[in-house]
């Protein structure tokens, strides 16, 4: 299963820094994901520092292989108390999720998370550990086994207390109000992606507030177990020409979303599978050849130039005015979870002619660079095969 | 008379060697010859890897004839020549 995670946030009205902190880290080798949400005392910069420190410590400890229970206990016992308000410096939730569905959660002070399975809320059992140093502090430990399409929703008290004082909602949105809206939203669209659902909750909380001004920092983190969205990119002709047909068929028969990056590659697939390819040169923008159309293939672009530009966009963001082929490619990649590259190893000597006005990169190198960025920055699962 | 087919290579080599400038043909040709000429882009004509004279890019095919180091003028000239021959 793939773990789709996202967090949406809103600052307290009038503040210029977030007082909640969300951090997550995926370990593709272990097939594990760590997520931390911490709510710092107060708001603005002070809260931001407290929340960031707590979240960073928790993430680093768990990432280093310490047990989640022990880590949280140490942090719980160590967090100082505010001298003025006599409450703890920050509250937190930590989740360690394995791709097979095993999840460990520890909560201290944050609203209880919501576990939704088959359109219903499940209230799981937990054990309580009291703090050795502070009387009113205790953490809840959960061990769950999630299945496909299950969701976990974590939020800061800015969500559950949204609307406090509103004549219609005297006690605010509360957990029960949030659950009602979540179930409605999921019922409408059972496949709603985590980024949409988390943004929906934040908007809901903000709209519940009097005058739509957030009275506290609002954060919502959604974890969704689902089938991975797979993508397959064929770029460059295979080294052995006699294998063209086999690879073309393998590409065609894959259930993944498909993209071809390269004119020669597009021709090869077109020839082997007898599918015409149409090139639309009127749409060529941003000094890149336009995308082509091929039935059954989601995206067809030119090769090296488009790939090189796509790497630039992945690294530095998209700054052009018009959407070009590289933008389409980046969009194709970022809307996938598992990305496989079939990289043809045949070189086109013409690309290395010193008379060319621009330097054309070696395909292997660009793909290597692209794969690394997709893995490190965008937390995608990437497979590169040379053919 | 069947239409004259103009194919502009949009492959990497041709594109960096100037095929991007040949895109003006897309507007120019229908304006000039209306229905007698059809112009389109192709992902790659594969000519840069076949011929040894790489500096021949960008390539355009007018019917089956290759125009190497193509410019708008060269392509238009070739079209004129075929039209003229066809009329003779």
Describe the structure.
- The complex is a heterodimer of chains A (387) and B (88).
- By secondary structure, chain A is an alpha+beta fold.
- Chain A contains 10 helices and 18 strands.
- Chain A has a 6-stranded antiparallel beta sheet, with helices on one face.
- In chain A, helix 8 packs parallel to helix 10 (363-376).
- Chain A is elongated.
- Chain A starts with a strand and ends with a strand.
- In chain B, a hairpin with a 2-residue loop joins strand 3 (60-62) and strand 4 (65-67).
- The model of chain B has no long low-confidence stretch (mean pLDDT 84).
- Chain B has helices at residues 12-16, 24-33, 47-50, 72-87; strands at residues 4-9, 37-42, 60-62, 65-67.
- A 4-stranded mixed beta sheet of chain B has the order 2-1-3-4.
- In chain B, 40% of the residues lie in helices and 20% in strands.
- Chains A and B meet through helix 7 and strand 14 of A and helix 1 and strand 2 of B.
List the keywords:
heterodimer, A: 387 residues, alpha+beta, Phosphatase 2c, domain 1, 2 domains, six-stranded antiparallel sheet, B: 88 residues, Glutaredoxin, four-stranded mixed sheet, 40% helix
Q: CATH class of chain B, please? A: Alpha Beta
Instruction: Please write the string of helix (H) and strand (E) elements of chain B.
Output: EHHEHEEH
Overall radius of gyration of chain B:
13 Å
C-alpha geometry of chain A: elongated
Q: How far from one another are the termini of chain A?
A: 28 Å
Can you tell me the CATH topology of the largest domain in chain A?
Answer: Phosphatase 2c, domain 1
